[in-house]
Amino acid sequence: MKKWTILTLFCGVCLAFTTVLHEGEKEEPVAIPASPQRVGQKDKGYQYLTTGDYIKSGIPYNYFLLGFGKSVSNLLKRDSPNNLISQEYTAVKAPNGETVVAPNCLQCHAQVFEDKLYIGMGNSMIDFTDRQKLNARNATMAEAILQGLEMPLGERKERWTAMMKVLERNDITAWRESFVRALTATARGW
């Protein structure tokens, strides 16, 4: 009961803080004035926007499908291999010949609303306040998780058993004893 009281109080304080923090802010739309548009071949531009290789690196196609699954909407009516990925991504051939999936401009400049894709100035669903970065370590971790999800049950059980043996040997008691030994050895050196 005490935990729930503290949790409820904490949530209430957080809510009050965010309410005070954003008090008085008006979130009304602002009109964007018209600007002169460039002339050119709009069909070729649209095709390049939706299937072009302007980003030549990305996640290997098979890993992408493994992690995100196949998209069934194909709102851009693209051909293979782009027909299986959502409109925010484009599958292209990397310089090494591998098909990779990379984000495209529609990641920020399009939004699906009531099952229709609107291409334009922005996407109200994107939150740029998250400071998480995709780096090599996080990508390696994501790959390992995805491989684990596809791993046969027998192999998963073997790995789990091996992991549990290590955890049982290195439990909190083992850690405490190791810490006390190291602390004692350090104190003797003073």
Description of the molecule:
- This protein has 190 residues and is mainly alpha-helical.
- The chain has a domain at 42-128.
- It is built from seven helices and five strands; from the N terminus they run ααβαββαββααα.
- The protein has helices at 2-21, 42-51, 61-68, 106-109, 136-150, 153-169, 172-188; strands spanning 59-60, 89-93, 99-103, 110-113, 116-119.
- The chain has a three-stranded antiparallel beta sheet.
- Strand 4 and strand 5 form a beta hairpin.
- The chain is extended and about 80 Å long.
- The two termini are 47 Å apart.
- The mean pLDDT is 80.
For the biggest sheet, the summary is: 3 strands, antiparallel
End-to-end Cα distance, whole Å, is 47 Å
- Counting DSSP E segments of at least 2 residues, the number of strands comes to 5
Mean pLDDT: 80
Indicate the multimeric state: single chain
* Low-confidence residue ranges: none
Task: Give a quick precis of the structure.
The protein is mostly helical and 190 residues long.
Write a concise keyword list for the protein shown above.
single chain; 190 residues; mainly alpha; 3-stranded antiparallel sheet; extended
